[in-house]
Design goal:
Blueprint (H helix, E strand, L loop, with lengths): L25 E5 L3 H13 L3 E5 L2 H10 L4 E5 L7 H12 L8 E5 L4 H9 L4 E4 L4 H21 L1
Length: about 150
């Protein structure tokens, strides 16, 4: 190109972040409902995440023993072992000195008391079903920003 033919660089559209903290994250999706699995998988793909699927808390605990995840999306109500109990057990294991794994609850309830129940179980944040791409992205971004701050202080 000649100098007079050069194309001016395009700036990002207003409101668009240049970084995407969620891109490239390896996520464990813990969800028993096939429709909710499909929705979450579609959104995670749009966010650029890779993921594995567990259908209950028992399978989730086995998965985190064998694979390093950046984040867990945990349904609260599942057969065999629900998300609350699975997260409590995960936190008990971490008390032994392993890395704290961020957990976002996926809950069908939107009451503030449900958020308190999630936090009491050791979950770091929650989104209420049905959730949008933006709601999921915001929750992931909040947690990943906190994770980066913790790593910086370590």
């Amino acid at each position: 190109l000649r100098a007079d033919e050069a194309v001016a660089p395009q700036s990002a559209p207003a409101g668009t972040e240049l970084t995407q903290p969620q891109r490239g994250l390896h996520v464990l999706l813990v969800e028993d409902n096939p429709a909710n699995q499909l929705m979450a998988q579609t959104l995670l793909k749009k966010l650029g995440c890779t993921f594995d699927l567990a259908e209950n808390g028992i399978d989730a605990l086995k998965a985190v023993e064998n694979t390093r995840y950046d984040l867990v999306l945990m349904d609260c109500m599942m057969p065999d072992m629900g998300g609350y109990e699975a997260t409590r057990r995960l936190r008990a294991r971490e008390a032994g000195g392993t890395r704290r794994l961020p957990v976002i609850a996926l809950t069908a309830n939107a009451l503030s008391s449900d958020g308190e129940r999630c936090r009491a179980a050791g979950m770091d944040d929650y989104v209420s079903k049905p959730y949008s791409l933006e709601q999921l992205k915001s929750a992931i971004d909040r947690l990943m920003q906190n994770e980066r701050k913790l790593v910086a202080w370590a």
